[in-house]
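dumping the sequnces here before i forget
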Amino acid sequence: MYLGLDGPNLRAMTELAPPPTRLQLFLAFTEIGLLGFGGAAALARSVIVERNRWMAEHDYAEILAVGQVLPGPNVGNTSVMVGRRFHGLAGALAASGGFYALPLVLLTGILLLYDRFGDSPGAEGFMRGIAAAAAGMVIGTALKMGWKLKPPPEAIVIGLLATLAAAWLRLPLPVIVLLLGPIAMWAAFRRLGR
Amino acid sequence: MSGVVLSLFLTFATLSLLAVGGANAIVPEMHRQLVEVHGWLDSATFGQVYALSQAAPGPNILVAAALGWVIAGGLGMAAAMVGIVTPAWILAWWVAGISERLAGRPWLRAVRGGLVPVAIGLILASGLIMAETAAVEWVGLGLAAAATIFAWRTEFSLLWALAFGGVVGLVLL
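..and the predicted 3d for all of it:
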């Protein structure tokens, strides 16, 4: 809202697709949970905002932002909030159920197979390649979100400070939110008042 | 046995509300609780199970389910999973309700809008941290850089980047 309800974002908002059904929510979050590989937030954005156009860029960013400061996996929280928005309790259960169910089944299978197949070198290279690509996918998505939302200068500074605090100083997330949150909210409030 | 299952549920339910930033934030506390306080498994097994659940598809929080499985089988897995998910789920549900009810209030718009740059900055940071461990040699670095450009500048499905990474990794890593 504060970040760009103008220009391309307003146009994007008017081009939203019809809201998803519960089954569509379940399947979308199944895909996100299964294929996120540590970058579920990146994949969730591409599925919800780009491919299906269920939400506008800024709307998804706000929900993800709240999901991130709450305890629990940020996309798990996002699934609850996105599901609730479209279909209440049933939607929240469908979305978060999709997010956890199939990965849980697969994990059980992997645990059962673990002793037998252990770590073959091929599997290790495959997983390392995916991990490297997933890292790039997350970085690229952050850049794309920042680009598309057209943040004002002070928001860019705040965002980069958050990056620095987390990646370089390795401050715990609650500390970062407590330090930067009030400043960020004050800046957003001032800009809204104009 | 049922004592362990109940105890697993309670342990993970407490950890649930501490997991700000996701599962990785509570790994040290998980280790302390399961290995040191309860002595349910040894440190080496904990490390193996953790690595396994990181490599498996799905959210990192599933490490709780995997640990529950190793400690007490299927029931232990269920107890750990329900424990780690439920409290945070209820909190997210409740916060979503409040923010729907108060939608449009200027201060709430400032709170939510203000958090957006922080959230994007944190996503960027998590990508960098992932890259630090995953992109050590030139193949990994090249893959990460290519995936960055792919995700940033194109609208294609990100699964292509992951599949490409997997195939290149299989051949070169």
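Chain B has two domains: 2-101, 106-172.
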